[in-house]
Amino acid sequence: MGLRRRLLYAAILLLLLISFSTLGYRVLGGPSIGLLQALYMAVITLAGVGYGEIVDTAHNPALRIFNMFIVLFGVAVTVYVFSVVAAFLVEVEITNPFWRRRMQKRLDELSDHFIVCGLGDTGRFVVTELQKTQTPCVVIEISEDNLHKMKELHGEVFRDLAYVIGDATEEEVLEKCGLSCAKGLVAALPHDKDNLVITVLSRQRFPRLRIVARATDRKFGERMMKAGASSTVSPNQIGGLRLASEAIRPHAVGFLDLLLKEQGQTLRVEEVVIQINSPWAGKRLDEIDLKGRMNLLVLGLKHPSGSGLPDVVVNPSDHATVSAGGVIIALGDMPDIERARRESEARA
């Protein structure tokens, strides 16, 4: 049932209850009780304001029983009416033009953010991870009811979420999310055809944008890669690998889950890109001392192609040299990762 229809039903129910209460007080109160007095008695009883009775119920058992019924039933109806009205006011606040202008202004100020298309079974986990790691993002969701549901279930994660209500396969909707200055896009709609359309539209406009697409069908995954997706992810494949890992290496999987679920920290395996003018370029890992200074565990080094060095070095030694244009892959808390990124980007 829509919110506006619920509001209409609540208003009708309240009006009927007031009318019934007024009629009851008028009939049971005797000829001395006028319409205004009966209506006043009905209103103060339903509102529970605690004013003195103007219709005497002390010497009228039938009227007193009627009054108890009105009090009990009226409390339930009043609570329901106020809850519906509050929900309606929230919806009006969300949909009014002032709020939309404020949201659009917030979207216009974003840069180097991620656009997540779809807030379904896959997209909501993407948004949760981006929010936990304090990565700026914008969500495109076609169902406003689904967005409200996510806010009710996961208030902390989705409270300050920037979003656009619309069809993510339309170019105008993508433009509203700041596609021109976005760092990446995640196509997480439930249908592969829609994710393919998003991939094509985004890649045609911005050749350097990183696009990650959800692909249930392997054939569609191949088409998305040909259409320009940077990477595709199959929920079925990931689920199968997870099932196998749970069966073969349960302790290792449990340890990784513990890192992800730790409330006090956001431990992640992250990457620190070494720019050409980075002060870390050409230095050894022991000189940078990520473990001692930032409590980061270096898991791997990725060297740029054409450097004559291995593409990826797993568990590098402390004497390994960090190459300009390469990537340090490290495990650590997100604030420490961000501190490492800021330091690596500083001018030499």
What does this molecule look like?
This protein is of the alpha/beta class. It folds into 3 domains: 3-95, Orthogonal Bundle (Helix Hairpins), CATH 1.10.287; 98-239, 3-Layer(aba) Sandwich (Rossmann fold); 265-345, Regulator of K+ conductance, C-terminal domain (Alpha-Beta Plaits), CATH 3.30.70.1450. The chain is 54% helix and 14% strand. The chain has helices at residues 3-28, 35-47, 61-95, 97-108, 123-132, 144-153, 155-158, 171-176, 192-205, 218-227, 235-248, 250-261, 285-288, 290-294, 334-345, and strands spanning 114-117, 137-141, 162-165, 184-187, 210-214, 231-233, 267-273, 297-302, 312-314, 327-333. Strands 3-2-1-4-5-6 form a 6-stranded parallel beta sheet, with helices on both faces. Strands 7-10-8-9 form a 4-stranded antiparallel beta sheet, covered by helices on one side. Strand 5, helix 10 and strand 6 (231-233) form a beta-alpha-beta unit. Helix 11 packs across helix 12 (250-261). The relative contact order is 0.06. The model has no long low-confidence stretch (mean pLDDT 84).
